[in-house]
TrEMBL record:
It comes from the Bacteria. One of its GO terms (molecular function) is sequence-specific DNA binding. The keyword DNA damage does not apply. It comes from Zunongwangia pacifica. This is Winged helix-turn-helix transcriptional regulator. The keyword Transcription regulation applies.
Amino acid sequence: MAKFKLDETDHQILDMLIENTRTPFTDIAKKLLISAGTVHVRVKKMEEAGIIIGSSLTLDYQKLGYAFIAYVGVFLKNTSQTKFVLERINEIPFVTVAHVTTGKFNVFCKVRARNTQHAKEIIFQLDDIEGVYRTETMISLEESINDKKRLMHSIFKDL
């Protein structure tokens, strides 16, 4: 990984790309009063340094019919089964995030479903994985905060 120190221009470029990863470099350049080539070079350097890793697309899951979100804590019979259980969880496409955790749960998952019936089916799939002792589910009523920019700005202040 290349060493790279971010400056204010890099912060502004990242800010715009976090807002919309599809923003053309020419638009970023116009707003920052620099050339599109400069934007391209800086983004490339940030990619080479491992600061930018790929890009992502944000979907409106509600419009796609998957607005129901549940968080499922998974208790394992033995922690030695973690890798096996994660491999089985990875086979369930509606489990969009899984974390190995300390504390109450061994694994903590985010589930996207069409409705409560569908969520129940997914949770039963999790329960049926060999090595899972039990699960505990929390239903999300609303995603109130999902803001990557606040964290990015805080990180930049520390640099």
